[in-house]
Amino acid sequence: MVNVYTQMLMRRHVGEHPQAKEYAAVIHQGVNRMEALIHDLLTFSKTIHSVDLPAEKADLSAALAEGISVLKDRIEQTGASITAPILPTVRGDTAQMAHVFQNLLSNALKYQTNGARPDVQISAKRDGTNWIIAVRDNGIGFEPQYAERIFGLFKRLHKEEFPGTGLGLAICRRIIERHGGRIWAESTLGNGSSFYFSLPRLEDA
Amino acid sequence: MKPLRILVAEDNQADVVLFREALRHHHIEHQLYVVSDGQSALQFVAQMGASPEIPCPDLLLLDLNLPKVDGPNILQEFRKHPECTHTPVIVVTSSDSAKDRAKVAEFQVTRYFRKPSDFDAFMDLGRIVKELFDGQMA
Predict the structure, then answer these.
(1) pLDDT tens string A12-57
(2) Cα–Cα dist A99/A43, whole Å
(3) Of A26, A43, A98, A195, which has the fewest Cβ atoms less than 10 A away?
(4) Domain around A40
(5) How close, in Å, is residue A6 to chain B by CA atoms?
(6) Residues of A in contact with B122 (CB under 8 A)
(7) How close is the nearest chain B Cα to the Cα of A169, in Å?
(8) Residue A50 domain-assigned?
């Protein structure tokens, strides 16, 4: 709404004033950042306040498909390739697991060198009583010392080049831990990133 | 053609201004009946048709998240009125959640309009209204 009013102000009362246009662009960016922040805070608040342990079955392939469908436009714009085998079903909430995939994929698409075509490979393997799901990308990666920090609230490694709220991975961690799992990341700068999360196998959960 | 009588249930006056803009933008003659909370909306609905000041509208623009009473309850009551069982309803909302849509799906929503953050996209609301009443507004 603020953006719409700013546009009306510019079109009807300001016109082609270069500095006013610059200020309007700043307002526009600010509003977009606020909207993203509110959206992510609401999501985070929902994951924090849902205390019941998930009792349903979460089909991770369906969750991935849902995450992909939300990002459809950006996948098309970037020409990204996303490959995944059939993923297991775990105990949990499909919608929340979709959110995890959406966040991880969104990062994989975002943190790329200019013009690069994102390549994301998803895999699943058994590890004792757990499934470990891996989401590997060919993006810019990060220095290993930040592997833990990036899951903190509002902790970001980039400010200007890549927009974001610093809530996405914190939300993922909360969701995965609520499902009795663990989430972590591995990377070296310039060589892509791998995000892993473990979830108890259904028969053992 | 008489002006379209539109009941607007919307608590944000800034959005009501934009609704008017969108209708003007598409040259739609209109008379708005604005209620800014759920209780006022229910009162309007209860008295619809009883006097010329409170007519059965040609269209309902309904925000789902209103003070006091939620949009789905208003729509439920609106549909009970014998003259409004098939009146077009456009749900205007900031949220795009499937849960919100599910809450009103059973009451025949004609269109969902997610309030956009771009002027031209917002003005599209006028086009949607125009298409709904195409033929009657020639």
Answers:
(1) 998 888 999 999 999 998 898 888 888 888 888 887 776 666 678 8
(2) 9
(3) A26
(4) 2-44
(5) 9
(6) 4
(7) 22
(8) no
